[in-house]
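Repro:
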Amino acid sequence: MTVHSNTLSLIGNTPLVRLAGPSEASGAEIYAKCEFTNPGASVKDRAALYIIEDAEAKGQLAPGGTIVEGTAGNTGIGIALVANAKGYKSIIVMPETQSREKMDTLRALGAQLVTVPAAPFSNPGHFVHTSRRIAEETPNAVWANQFDNIANRRAHILGTAEEIWEQMEGRVDGFTCAAGTGGTIAGVGLGLKQKDEKITIALTDPYGAALYNYYAHGELKAEGSSVAEGIGQSRITANLDGAPIDTQFRISDADGLHWVERLLGEEGLCLGLSSGINVAGAVELGKALGPGSRVVTILCDTGLRYLSTLYNRDWLVSKGLTPLPWLAN
């Protein structure tokens, strides 16, 4: 057993688990990285650590400084924890549509939380633009800029991809996940392609995002909508630039929720909708690659972060989604 010398070393080196139901449904072997085991309970801890240490290495962060970021929540939670461990302050800007649990968590961690109305990226009031302005106006502050700061994807090139390769003993046929910033799909894709060019990297895109059409038809065009938090993108971020996407799938919220329900009810994993969408994409990739293929995806965060939304009967009904059976009454 390993004894860690400091708490930040707890980030990464997450377990890999074989998922029985998805493996049976696809005829492939479906494996998933359990990113909810990070200290902040999400994959975004990795980016938070790399972004902050990159700013330190560049001399952009002075002692007692502040990290400012616009986020759907999980990156903010990671930044707050890393900032606390390193003696910095954090200011987090979130759309007010995100789950109450994320907001309560950020306040509990000591971050200064700023909420703004949900808006398209073209709107100056968008949470990303608001966070940039706050960083510019705050003394001794840096803007994390997770969407276009490639320290984000470097966390996955050097960390997540290496871990997957080692845990899978070099036998990987495919990898898939959704894109928010693009750091995970691009970073893991680039890292795995360095090991074996034949590995298929597939984008799993929710409805309401524009990347499926971009990779399938060369046009950034969104169709439909999704209630999934933290995934779905309408532009090619710096992290997505050059991502080695071989194929793409578009997954509905209902299909993602199907796997959220099954993984909790059958395998004891309580997950968010982004994880369910990722697993649905892994099932499709497994079917495409054929029987016995070995596919890896990402379980982004814990479902306990969505008790007021995804695990709330009334909220699901209001979004036109079928409640989990045990919530029906």
